[in-house]
Amino acid sequence: GKTSLTAAITKYFGEYKRYDQIDAAPEEKARGITISTAHVEYETANRHYAHVDCPGHADYVKNMITGAAQMDGAI
Fold this sequence. Notes:
By secondary structure, the protein is of the alpha+beta class. It has one domain. It is 39% helix and 16% strand. The protein contains four helices and two strands. A two-stranded antiparallel sheet has the order 1-2.
């Protein structure tokens, strides 16, 4: 759901990134899960956002923590 949300947000705000562009590594595509963090930027009229899409799978908690350490907020 996190990567799908990222794709939907970028579609709404202009610079659309498809799901397979966010989870771009061959293993991510083959397994259908996020392994590495992905950084996606977009803007509204008032703000610039840098969205960090993190893995949710238990095997990649270390990668999630690395991404979360860069965040000011989370959904």
